[in-house]
Amino acid sequence: MAKTLTQTLNSTKPPTRLLDNPFIRDYGMVFVLLLLGGLFSLLTLKAQHPTGEDAGRQVADSIIARSGPQARVLIVTRDTAEDLLFSAAAAKQLERVGAKVLASVNGTATDARQAIEGILGQSGEIDAIAANDVTSKWTVYDRYPSVGSAKCVVPASYTWPDFLKVSNLLGVANQTAIYALIAIGMTMVIITGGIDLSVGSLVALSSVTAAILIRDVAGGPQASVLAVIVAGVAGIGCCALAGAFNGFMVTAFQIPPFIVSLGMMMMASGLSFRLSAGRSIPELPNSFFWLGRGVTLGIPHPILLMILLYAIAHVVMSRTVFGRYVYAIGGNPEAARLSGVPVKRILLLVYTLCGALAGLGGIVLTSQLSAGDPKFGLMYELEVIAAVVVGGTSLMGGRGKVFGTLIGAFIIAVIKNGMNLTDVDPFNQKIVLGAVLMVAVLLDTLKRRGARV
Question: Exposed, middle or buried by CB within 10 Å (0-12, 13-18, 19+), for 379?
Fold first, then answer.
């Protein structure tokens, strides 16, 4: 029997759509991140001049090969941390083979001139000057005929992108960590079809709360580690309560999340300024800085914390009943309720988690900047929402991945860092970031409409 027109149409395989591929839909922005990394690598490719211990040893070996093991050497660097390592390593390497280090200058060209005059005034001779790329260009050496810039020995340069320097990549990741931590909670909220505009103000509230408790209750700079932990937990708990209030107002009275969180944003900001009298609170102990400024195995602690929490969040959202409930509510809250999903309890928990993670971001930021401040978190909500949307989470709810959010956060951070490295005007940077957000929303709209790409 011949097929009807309807049967024929139903049996026809629908056209392949790139955005319908689950991996592309959820993690396609990985390719965008890689492309951005490649672009900024090309744009920042330039000659690099080594610093630090390895550079110091390299220069010392070059001097020994050129002037012999009995060389009389003046070491000239600036007073930066890497230059001090350079100076110490060069001196150690030279002295190990019997060379004489006449002086180690860690300062300015004036300091170098004084050192040279002191050596020459004692009828000394300088066989070589261990310097880096910056100090070798000082004109002070040519003032003395027996010295001259020709005696400067510098580390061998190489070509490498500024963007791909380890220090730059770690800096980007470290600066992204706070936004990424807050974005975990925001991802859950947006997947449910909501929004939370209060996270930036909660960062400030957490910071101020913890700092005040340490200053006024725990003894300030002399506070114990336990007191610091309790104060940090109190700051996070305060923000969790604020998030719970948001969730309660949304679930109990069906007030739009936009309005509820906007009100909380203003209240939390006002409370932060009221508690701190509008002033920064720097009276914190050194133990408080471990979380934000500590390093383990060469990796800053905020990055390690970010990795840990994203791993946990991925498991929670992809492997647990709670995660399935969150997606179900975002897809169709009424259908989820009729299916037995405790919609109100899940929403309450989601907003509470979002508030708590914003509070954790405030504690990390306070630890990084060594003070509590009511001005922390300004405009963070926009950065966080942008990271979530760019990462592929739909503003309409029901779809998104926490790892996608992490990728989105890094895309924004890489764009900002790349534009800084290439000296893009700050005003133009805002235009670019706004365009990126609009493109992300457009892609989400196209996916919703099933447009072919």
Answer: exposed
Q: Are strands 295-296 and 299-300 parallel, antiparallel or unpaired?
A: antiparallel
- Give me the DSSP letters along 266-324: HHHHHHHHHHHTT--B----GGGGHHHH-EETTEEHHHHHHHHHHHHHHHHHHHSHHHH
Q: Specify whether the CB–CB gap between 87 and 77 falls below 8 A.
A: yes
Mean pLDDT confidence for 20-25: 60
Q: How far lies 262's CA from each of 26, 257, 265, 349, 386, in Å?
A: 29, 8, 5, 19, 17
Token duo for residue 427: 């005003």
Other CB atoms within a 10 A radius of the CB of residue 269 amount to 20
Query: Cβ(293)–Cβ(175) under 8 Å?
Result: no
Helix and strand numbers, DSSP H then E, in the chain: 18, 8
CA distance 183 to 314: 13
Alpha-carbon distance of 264 to 273, in angstroms, equals: 14
Q: DSSP secondary-structure letter at 372? A: B
Structure tokens at 367: 């630890």
Residue located via tokens 């493109």: 439
Assess whether pLDDT exceeds 80 at residue 123.
no
pLDDT score recorded for residue 423: 92
Residue type, 422: T
Return the ∠ at Cα 19 (arms to 257 and 399), rounded to 5°: 25
- For the chain, which domains are there? 53-156 (3.40.50.2300), 166-449 (1.10.3470)
| 371-428 per-position pLDDT tens digit | 999 999 999 999 999 999 999 899 899 989 999 999 999 999 999 999 999 999 989 9
Distance from C-alpha of 176 to C-alpha of 126, rounded to nearest angstrom: 48
Residue 5 has pLDDT above 80, yes or no: no
d(CA 313, CA 330): 17
User: According to the model, what pLDDT value does residue 54 have?
Assistant: 92
Distance from chain centroid for Cα 3 = 60
Query: What is the Cα 250 distance to its own chain's centre?
Result: 31
| Residue 12 in this model has a pLDDT that exceeds 50 | no
* Distance separating alpha carbons of residues 145 and 130, to the nearest angstrom: 18
* Apex 78 CA angle, 173 and 83, nearest 5: 50
Alpha helices in 192-224 (DSSP H): 199-216
- Measure the CA–CA gap between 351 and 264, rounded to whole angstroms: 12
- Listed residue (228, 203, 206) closest to 217, CA to CA: 228
What is d(CA 26, CA 389) in angstroms, rounded to the nearest whole number?
11
pTM metric for this prediction: 0.86
